[in-house]
Amino acid sequence: MALNMYNVLFIGKGTITISLSKSLDPDKWRIDHHSRTGEHLDTFNLADYDYVVSCLPDAETATNMWTDIFLSALNSKADRTVFIDISTLKYEAIKKINDDFCRENLTFIEAPFTGSKRGALKGSLIYFAASDTTPPENDAFLKSTSSKIYTFNSIGAPTRFKLFYNLWGLTSLGVLGQMLQIMNTLPQADLVSEIITSNEDFWMSAIARQKLDQSLSRNYEDIHCKLKYAKKDIKYAMEEFSDHRLELSDCLLSILENHQLQPYDELDFTSMREFFR
Length: 277
Known about the structure:
- By secondary structure, this protein is an alpha/beta fold.
- The protein has helices at 15-23, 59-75, 91-103, 116-122, 140-144, 157-183, 189-198, 205-217, 227-240, 247-256; strands at residues 6-11, 29-34, 51-54, 82-85, 107-110, 113-114, 125-129, 146-151.
- Helix 1 (15-23) links the parallel strand 1 and strand 2 (29-34).
- The N and C termini lie far apart (56 Å).
């Protein structure tokens, strides 16, 4: 085996974990996947892995899966393995997972990310991380798959920040979806699009530069984040920050939850543009 070779087991076989697999140097990383619909976790000896990295769709699934991971870690005596969750979960879920692992002196890192599929493929995700047992900014897996790691001082703080970040961004994306209907009625809509995205000093340009082309082309099969996960993140954020007035985000969620629009759930979240037609 090559010097400094790492073994990583991805829990969950979706857009992000597959993309991360492609970004990791095969001369330095040996990669396995555990699919929740495939083989049982007990078929893996977790002590054989330097990393077990989980990316799961929601807090309930993650809590159940991490219970299995935790028991498997104890059974296989995986005390040298680093366990990382990069999902966007609820604060209570990530706290429970961390408490279980810390109680048994197992290494756990909370590291939700931004960057979606493009960042995963390039190995340039941005992580928001915390750990009670190890410095996340020095972690080999996080460093190999990111362009930046922001370290928070307490478990749960990265998750709360990520929920805030997603709520802001998704609400803004909803506004973009609404405004595109007007933009398409303006004279020289192509020129309007060029103007909006061409100048970094335009205060509206950040989301438009990243998402306008995909929204205009209706290329929703190019999935960076499924709409159903965006809806989940809005719900989690609104629960977490329920003491605040969130009428704008609540209105967007009501639109997204229209039962007639459920076929869009498996498409990219830019498909929310269609809801304003």
